[in-house]
Every structure is written in structure tokens, then in C-alpha cells.
Write a structure and sequence with these properties.
This protein is an alpha/beta fold. Helix content is 27%, strand content 25%.
């Protein structure tokens, strides 16, 4: 069984600074915990600094826990997913995450069984069957790993002048097949096991 953790946006925006999310991400896994962090949704130049910050942030909640981190690489994605116990798909541009990189390595999906997979914002979007586009309002199709529809950054000020959250929810709910709609506020997360 795979544990998926879907996050509505920045986990650090939660009242606890993301502690509950990090605890859920590393729960029940023997040490040393192996985490693969994927920034494919962001410009490549930003990856090293983001990786450094995220490692420090996660490790800050577990000063005595042995955790090993790897930065996901396009060339090594499949072997890195096999190595990892936890995969963290960070947010950014969901279309880039889907079209430019993950679809080139569709085989990585075969190796998720028994792992913990967390996705923030665009990372949550791509795991769903459908998600709502916030930058250019509309609906897009994710990888369909989970039979759900996702609306991230829910009721936040993300693209506030252009998002009618009630309309977005209704459009997503009525699109395609009848699937549960998961709304996730900034920093909020939901665990789905499959």
C-alpha cells in the first residue's frame, strides 16, 4: 500500500510550520529514512538552493533521526525512486511537471508501491486525475495516480483577482467522471492510502 500526502500549497504556512506534515511524511519508516525531493516543476537553476532549504527544514523537526536526501535528476529518476522510501514532489508549474519531465519517465510510477509520496501544490495536482489550473483558470488532467479531483491553494490569495473559488469548485466537480473533489488550503494536507 502506498501513502499519498496531498498538500494545498506551502506546508510551512500551516500553524505548526509544517511539523505535522513532516511527521506524517516520515512516520512508521525505519531509519535511515531515504527521501527523494523532486523540483521538476521549477526552473533548474533554483533546485540546489531549494534542496538545501528543504533538507534543513525537514531535518529540523527530527534532530535525532537519520535521514538521507537525494535531489531528483531527470536522468536518474527511476533508480532514485527505487532507492527512496519517500518521494516529495514540490510545487511550481504543474504543466511543466507533467509534460516536460514526468511523462518522459512514466515507468517511475511502477515503483511507488509501499512508499510515501507527498505532493505540494503542483505536486498534488499531478497525482490526481483532474486538477484546477490557477494561473490560467481551467481544468487539466493529471497522471491519474489517485482517482480524485484536486483544488490546491483553496480560498487563499493565490491569483486572487482571477479566481472565483466557488466557481472553480463547481467546474471541477462537474468535469469528467464523478470523482471526489479534495480542496486543500494553504499548508493543509490530506493523506490518501491506496
Amino acid at each position: 500500500m502506498t501513502k499519498y500526502i496531498l498538500v494545498g500549497g506551502y506546508p510551512m504556512e500551516a500553524d505548526d510550520g509544517g511539523k505535522a506534515f513532516c511527521e506524517a511524511f516520515v512516520a512508521d519508516v525505519p531509519e535511515p529514512y531515504r527521501i527523494l525531493i523532486c523540483y521538476f516543476a521549477r526552473p533548474i537553476a533554483s533546485w540546489p538552493e531549494a534542496f538545501k532549504q528543504d533538507k534543513m527544514w525537514i531535518q529540523s523537526f527530527f534532530p535525532d533521526k537519520r535521514i538521507t536526501f537525494q535531489l531528483a535528476s531527470v536522468d536518474k529518476l527511476i533508480s532514485q525512486v527505487q532507492w527512496a522510501q519517500g518521494l516529495f514532489l514540490k510545487g511550481g508549474n504543474a504543466e511543466q511537471l507533467l509534460q516536460e519531465l514526468l511523462h518522459q519517465h512514466a515507468d517511475w510510477l511502477k515503483f511507488l508501491d509501499g512508499k510515501t509520496v507527498a505532493g505540494t501544490s503542483a505536486g498534488a495536482d499531478v497525482l490526481a486525475r483532474y486538477y484546477y489550473l490557477l494561473d490560467t483558470p481551467g481544468i487539466a488532467k493529471g497522471l491519474g495516480v489517485l482517482p480524485i479531483k484536486v483544488l490546491v491553494h483553496y480560498r487563499s490569495d493565490y491569483n486572487a483577482p482571477n479566481i472565483d473559488w466557488d466557481k472553480a469548485y463547481t467546474e471541477l466537480q462537474s468535469h469528467g467522471e464523478n470523482l471526489p473533489v479534495i480542496t486543500l488550503r494553504e499548508g493543509e494536507f490530506k493523506i490518501v492510502k491506496q
